[in-house]
Amino acid sequence: MEEKRYEAVIEAILFAMGESVELEKIAAAIELDAAETKKIIDGMMAQYEDPSKGVQIIELDGAYQMCTKSEMYEYLIRIAKQPKRYALTDVLLETLSIIAYKQPITKMEIEKIRGVSCDHAVNKLVEYNLVCELGRLDAPGRPLLFGTTEEFLRSFGVHSIDELPVLSPVQVEEFKQEAEAEMKVQLDI
User: Fold this and answer.
1) What pLDDT does residue 55 have?
2) Which end of the chain has fewer CB within 10 Å, C or N?
């Protein structure tokens, strides 16, 4: 392997690991001895000193780590302070609507309505701060109860869950028929 290829592999290792990696482990990965590997890494460290680079490789007690140069911190802080945007997929919206209308509700009750596991969807909604744990149901196993948050109200422009649209009995019946037809199609497959 030529030196540029070794550099690319070392760079990939340090970037992907995100933490310090011992010289011996890097050497073993690229199948070179420690002295030769250290020489390549020292050369890379010199290349990263270039002011046009935003990252650097640092040595920490015989291990190496790729990290951001300190003069870049203010830009990272600007990005970190920006509000996070999240995408609500159909699955997340469906799960969120069940929680909003039926709260407080357990995961098992959500799964009974949806017919599939809801762990991922509920965890994502909690991560997005649209749903939170409200406590535990006083039943065997003491399952967690979930409900919506103030962030949910803000995001959907309502002051209280009482302002959520109410479905007419006709709409409920239409949805029920659609769901039954969908179930029939899935069973026929």
Assistant:
1) 94
2) C
